[in-house]
Amino acid sequence: MANIDLLDEPRAIDTHAHQPTAEFLHDAGGEMMRDAAGKFGTELETWGYEEMREEYHQAGIRHAVLLGWDAETNTGNPPVENDYVAEVRDDYPDFFTGFASVDPLKDDCVAEAERAIEELDLSGFKFQQIAQGFDPSAPEHDELWAMIEDLGVPVVFHGGNSTLGAGAPGGRGLRVRHGNPLLVDDVAARFPDMQILLAHPAFPWEKEQLAICQQKGNVYMDLSGWLPKYIDEQVLQYAGSLLRDKVMFGTDYPMIRPEAWLESFAEHTDFSEETQRKLLWENAEDFLGL
Ligand SMILES: [Zn+2]
């Protein structure tokens, strides 16, 4: 079945976009990003936000969550600063919602989390536990989770394996274990007012992820990072039934491009029009408060 018509008027919302610029792909990404690109045979070409917005609108997408990135302590690479994310959001306020990143291994992470929301007016947080090298269930991070719960904004946690560092000896020291969604389940249980989006089908823990999304009222998931044709059949089945109010569309731009994702979605899934609306924008509108 074909996608519902997105092209008359762009309506979809991408819950997971990175910068197509050197700030993310070259500086913050560093060698681990070059490993990932090598694995998929892509060049780390960069372009600007005007081109990005044009590409999104042509694909039928009206809005995107632009994510910060700070894995400096664990990787040694410079962050995509929260101030920068806020500037880009200010240049395109209708197109971008900006999510902050704080490095949980930095001493000032709690203060930076507060500043990102109160001063920069960012709308949520993104954590990439594998790149950032931390276990979110460890009690030493509770102060950060308590602050974020108090701030009342949503949080995206990475889910599953990562291609960063793929093929390098020791995977450049990154630990796949930190991407296990069961570590986030602990956080969700202890901070029930925190609204959590588990990004990506969490390979190889998709079943755990589905169980958590089903059991925890405050945990959601998105379909970013994988073309629909490669997504586990059971994930798609849940997205059309038990979890159809909780699953959202995302790309993982610029690694996955919107047109390619939506084409694969049209070819390989068979959701009703109502479910497509939920997955492509309605669930994200509710989750993000748009
Ligand atoms: Zn991502």
Model description:
- The protein has one domain (12-288): TIM Barrel (Alpha-Beta Barrel), CATH 3.20.20.140.
- Strand 5 (155-158), helix 9 and strand 6 (196-199) form a beta-alpha-beta unit.
- The mean pLDDT is 95.
- The chain has an eight-stranded parallel β-sheet.
- Helices cover 42% and strands 12% of the residues.
- It is α/β, with parallel strands linked by helices and 290 residues long.
- The chain is globular and about 50 Å long.
- The structure holds zinc ion.
- Zinc ion binds at residues 16, 18, 252.
- This is TIM-barrel fold metal-dependent hydrolase.
Looking at this protein, list some descriptive labels.
about 290 residues, alpha/beta, TIM Barrel, eight-stranded parallel β-sheet, 13 helices, binds zinc ion
Provide the fold topology.
Elements: E1 12-17, H1 22-28, H2 30-40, H3 49-59, E2 61-67, H4 72-75, H5 82-91, E3 96-100, H6 109-118, E4 124-127, H7 129-132, H8 142-151, E5 155-158, H9 181-190, E6 196-199, H10 206-215, E7 219-222, H11 233-239, E8 247-248, H12 258-268, H13 273-288
Parallel strand pairs: 1-2, 2-3, 3-4, 4-5, 5-6, 6-7, 7-8
